[in-house]
Amino acid sequence: MILPVERGGKAEGVRVVELLAVLSLGADLGMGQPMEHVLRQTLLALRLAERLRLEESARSSLYYSSLLAWVGCHVDAYEQAKWFGDDLALKGDFRKTDVSRATSGVAFMLRHLGAGRPLLERARLGIAFPGEGSRAAERMLGNHWLAADHLASRLGMTDAVRKSIEQTFERWDGKGVPHGASGQAILVTSRLITLADVVEVFRRAGGVDAAIEVARQRSGTQFDPALVDLFCTDAHELLEASTT
After folding, report:
1. What are the structural domains of the chain?
2. Of 6, 118, 165, 234, which residue is 20 to 30 A from 61 by alpha carbon distance?
3. What is the pTM of this model?
């Protein structure tokens, strides 16, 4: 997998982009994804940015924020395991579900809550989840962002990169975190990362048609409809380019 060469600083004698590429491989494992998922996500997001004719500064922010976005996914693995059992199974399944939809969100939680535990323990967790557990689940995504933001700060990333990371968990319909931003209030770099992340998972599992289908299903909810249209128009070319 070859990434675009970017002008970057040095971090203990190692190019920042090389460090981030290695960290992204760790994030793959922490999310229950195969190696190079984040790299493919980043390439796809950059391909879409080219079609949008984003300025070089915006593409640079997209590049760094995409590589950094998920590095905090493992920071509260204990809490995830406490409520949901196998945290890797939880995070691997997360992208396959539009959790903001009432029926699918409830089904997702019931499927994973106390997974692998005895029936009575699962029942106890089910009783506790609407209060303590729900608050813990909301904190998890916030903790992921904070961990990634802290690393970005330590690496001297720009405010634009850090803001893009912060908004990666936001949704077009305003039902995301940490601030419930919606629509055009979300940076286009963040919107590109969110879309590229999910469609890459579906492409790997079911091919290009599955990627197009999930993009259209979540258009106007999780994803920016204009970006969905752009992706679906050239999906085959975009996805082939991001996997070579």
Report:
1. 10-75+144-241 (1.10.3210.10)
2. 234
3. 0.81
